Amino acid sequence: MYQLYQFVTGPIAWMSFGIFFIGVIVRAITYIKGLNWQADRVTYTVNVSYGISGALRSVFFWLIPFKTRSWRVNPGFTVLFFVFHIGLLVTPVLLQAHNILLKERWGISLWSMPDAMADVLTIAMLVAALFLTLRRIALPEVRILTNAYDYILMLIAVAPFITGFLASHNASCYDFWLILHIITGEIMLVAIPFTKLSHFVLFFCSRAQIGMDFGIKRGGMKGKGLAW
Amino acid sequence: MAEGILCNRRPINTEEELQTLLADKSGKQYYAEMNELDVDTEKLEATLQKTLKSRLKTWLEICAHCGLCADSCFLYLANKKDPEQVPSYKIQSTLGEIVKRKGKVDNAFMQMVMDTAWSKCTCCNRCGMYCPFGIDMGIMFGYLRGLCFSQGFVPWEMKIGSGMHRIYRAQMDITTEDWVDTCEWMAEEYEEDWPGLCIPVDKENADIIYTVNAREPKHYPEDIAEAAILFHLAGENWTVPSEGWEETSLAMFAGDWEACKLQVESVYDAMHRLKPKRMVVTECGHAYRATVIEGPYWAGIKTGKTPIESFHYVEWVAEALRTGKLKIDPSKRIKEPVTYQDSCNYIRNAGLGDAAREIMSYIAEDFREMTPSREHNFCCGGGGGLNGVGRYREQRNIGLKIKRDQILATGAKLVISPCHNCWDAIRDLEEVYKVGIRWSFLKPLLIKMVEVPEHMKPED
After folding, report:
1. Which residue on chain A is closest to B81 by alpha carbon?
2. Which CATH number do you get for residue B347?
3. Are B332 and B249 in the same domain?
4. Per the structure, how many domains does chain A have?
5. Phi and psi torsions of B102, nearest 5°
6. Does residue A70 belong to the interface with chain B, where contact is any CB pair within 8 Å?
7. pLDDT at A150
8. Are A139 and B67 within 8 A, CB to CB?
9. Is residue B147 located within the same domain as residue B211?
């Protein structure tokens, strides 16, 4: 078991993080290189100040709950969306156990949150995931869009949280859940650049692009900025 | 590879081809031939490889299937929330499939794609405002229409429309002579009531070059006279070009990008030729979108701007009222409740919501906003060419219900609609649903309300 632990936290971990970091950078660069002012009909490099302000507005408005009309008219979804994503992004980074590991290996660490808070975030995130999944099944307008891929992605996203939660609360099978937690976490990291999870970075690219479109071309130079 | 005589992959480039296609009443033979039209799958794949770049590819790939776009689409709402009307579904099952199959699709599939692209989306771009990723399916449908056009799968009227632009540089068969004659005729017709009224053609170095929608000279020439009267009253130094006077672009609705370029270049040429200070466009939404917002890109102008600064008619009216060039007689302001139809093309997609409100503050005493309004307003129901396609009349009429209900909820019986497409749709919704509303462009209302200085009145 120890050897396996060493393996998944050693070379496999390095590889996963490597694929993740290089992968998302490559995705972002490929996206930007593939933009074309004439095909997209947006002068990205000419009216730059309008472009930057449009892009920032477009990202910012959507990162704040209820800041856009779309968030406001879909309050239930908005809550699920933010609870899910905050839990997904904040928990692993600020988890005490992860920071201890980081300290042991590299001698650095971030501020850690109390374990109880991590538990709350994890459970909230898992509950949100459950409701997002039920929503897929229950609402005809979402069901028609849904395919197996969507469920697999959700599974990839929640697996490290379920296993991590069990590892920290289930002392009897600690090793089993811990190894599984590490492996599922690595699967998620590797999956990010290659699947729809690439929206980890492409969300920002896509939002910035449409922000530039509206900021430069579709009224940004005349209006007060689009009321997202 | 099989092609029809009327329905084929070649655009209309000659008067003769155009007449033959027009003679085929309602496109009966045209659509019959479409059943036999082969898909040039190699060309389709090559086009995808060349033109499907980052933005569209990413949009297709990262859509999280969340369904937030559903309620943003008036066609989804009007069709009793039919899941097949969810924007994401509509684009994934058409463009998404074509990409997935690398262009290897058959005739039946392309006909389904055509029907979806023209009858289930008006390219109003509202969904793009409701998607967390900013996926604008209106833009994707515009692109898809281009693919359809290049394969010959395009509604009959759209093929005719783009052919008109190719031949006449106008969406209708109006020659330079017809246009100039109409201007002269209108000036003469109204000169008695408006002494000194003229419609200067091809005057160089004017302050304003005024451009129109071909429907005006063809069907509503008084609209040109009204524009002239208002410019006259405002004391503007203006002109119309003898060539390059048409702002609209059925070619844009058709997805005929080559014709789009030809059309806008005719307007830009007029700007270069006559050297006016700025351009004002008539009360038309898609015309402004085509020539001012998208046109510079078709023409390859790297600044993304028209050669001279360009304004929609509502911007000019707002300015004229603000600066006092036009003064409204306070006793003649609109007393009854009145609402305003925000055109997708110049409000959502060009940021002119404030200009419209400014005008209303001068002319209306009981202005009622629709809900939602401004950038978030719903399409009139007839945008993107949908008004003009006989094959989809029924679908269009169903879609009108949303606008009907929005208007009725305001309690206003008068709808101001400074956009030809919206104006038509609202006229048709009254015809179909008989709810007792009236609709108007700004010009006729303004003429009834403006103060006319003594020296401009006719001598009795």
Report:
1. A141
2. 3.40.50
3. no
4. 1
5. 50, 40
6. yes
7. 97
8. yes
9. no
| pLDDT the model gives residue A208 | 98
- Residue A138: pLDDT band with limits 50, 70, 90: very high
By the CB < 8 Å criterion, does A162 face chain B? no
Share of chain B above pLDDT 70, in %: 100
Contact B130 A70 (CB under 8 A): yes
Instruction: Give the range of the structural domain holding residue A163, as residue numbers without chain letter.
Output: 47-217
pLDDT of residue A1: 75
Q: What is the pLDDT of residues B259-276, one digit of tens each?
A: 999 999 999 999 999 999
Q: A61 to chain B: nearest residue by CA?
A: B132
What's the mean pLDDT in B135-163? 98
Shared-domain flag, residues B47 and B69: yes
- Does the pLDDT of residue B251 top 80, yes or no? yes
Residue B351 confidence (pLDDT) above 90: yes
What is the tens place of the pLDDT at every residue in A22-38?
A: 999 999 999 999 999 99
Question: What ipTM score was computed for the predicted complex, to two decimals?
Answer: 0.96
Beta-carbon separation of B303 and A47 below 8 A: yes
Q: Do B130 and A199 touch (CB under 8 A)?
A: no
Q: Which residues of chain B does A224 touch, with a Cβ-Cβ cutoff of 8 Å?
A: 351, 354
Of B88, B122, B154, which residue sits at a domain end?
B154
Contact of A9 with chain B, judged by CB distance below 8 Å, is answered with: no
